[in-house]
Amino acid sequence: MTCDELRGKLAAYADSELPAAESAELESHLRGCNACAAEAAARFKMKQMIRAAGLFHTPTPEFRNQLQRSIAAGRRPAWLSGWLPRLAVTAAAAVVLIACVALWIDRSQREHSFAELADIHIATLASASPVDVVSTDRHTVKPWFAGRIPFTFNLPELQNTEFTLAGGRVTYFHQNPGAQLLFNLRKHQISVFIFRDQAGVLSSLGGDQTDTRLAFHLESFATGGLRYFIVGDAPASDLHALAELLKRAARS
Amino acid sequence: MPLFPRLYNFAHWLTQNRHEAEDLVQETCLKALKGFASFRQGSDFRAWIYKILRNTFLTSRSGLKQATVSLDDDESDIPEPVTETTPESILLAGLDYERLQRALAELPVQYRESILLCDVEEMSYQQIADTLAIPLGTVMSRLSRARRAMRAALAGDASGASR
To answer: For chain B, where do the domains classified as CATH 1.10.10.10 start and end?
Structure first.
């Protein structure tokens, strides 16, 4: 084997890829040729150094644990593979979460406000003098509020209805002054709260709504820049009938 | 998972990025679990799983980017390149990790994966050919070029691979 022939096979020899017979022949040459022996030694050393330098990157313990968990959890659905679907799922989850939180905050705020109005209604009924202006006449009650609250409102004609006006008082809800009117219906007493329909807590109660809490019914609507809340233990249909009368009066 | 640290090392050398390497290994393991039925008993498990990793890498963003480097693979019979690096300079050289690692990182991915599978993973030419799905001659050609670059890097000649 000449030096040139050997150099062509040295790579395979260093990589242990040379058949045994050729390896023996090559080794025989190396024993008598210093230049080829030095080249062979250099190749072995290069392999050794590349191996030492190449074993460099090690996984973090966190990744090892994460991988073990994901393998233990079983296969991931195909649609979940790749970064884009993962990003989409994360984004969708974030949107759902934000929507849920917003709905929860909205609902919780609304429930809190309804409970507060019910409390005012109950406190009014429990009071020795539930109303400050005692009159069944709308033309007495409405003018009484002039100068006491920063708006005015119309009251319905209650003749030929089961409702009677008992009177009214000034009330406050979330620092907003408003009118509280007390109506009688058979043995039930119903409060009608009227506030300016403005931004803030009242706007969170926006939209026409009905609700029932602890056997109290509540109906709400907005018209003419005013927001009305009707609270009482009378049937919801009766509260609705009173709401319709108030709406008609507001439009007149 | 005895292969896990080695798979990760290989993945990191391919992607050259920790997060991408983690994604690649995770994807590989899940694919291997899912497709284990396709593994033929008695065949080389290591070559099988490295092949999954490498194919997954090729379809990844950084894999596609690196694969755009054009290579002439019809040079499997090229003679051993002549370099100015003498055997003595190699034998006398200290183990300069940083220089070698830099040289490895700078190799085109086709050469980098070949030399890593051969010298670090100690795979046979046939195993490398199976893993990379290339002919034996191409394996030898790529190894030859990669080693020339590494020798040049060790001798301080970083232009060895591109000549």
So the answer is: 87-154
**Residues lower than pLDDT 70 in chain A:** 74-90, 92-111, 199-214
Q: Look at domain B4-67 and name its CATH class.
A: mainly alpha
End-to-end Cα distance, chain A? 118
3-class DSSP assignment, residue A189: strand
Architecture per CATH, B87-154: Orthogonal Bundle (1.10)
Residue whose token pair is 């995770």: B26
Domains and CATH numbers, chain A: 3-54 (no CATH), 109-251 (3.30.200.100)
Q: What local confidence, expressed as pLDDT, does residue B56 receive? A: 92
CB contact under 8 A, A46 and B124: no
Contact call for B100 and A49, based on CB within 8 A? yes
Give B116 to chain A, closest Cα distance, Å.
7
Over B40-82, what HEC string results?
A: CCCCCHHHHHHHHHHHHHHCCHHHHHHHCCCCCCCCCCCCCCC
Which residues in chain B come in under a pLDDT of 70? 1-2, 41-42, 67-85, 90-95, 156-163
**Which amino acid is it at A96?**
V
Q: Please give the distance of CA A201 from its chain centroid, rounded to a whole number.
A: 19
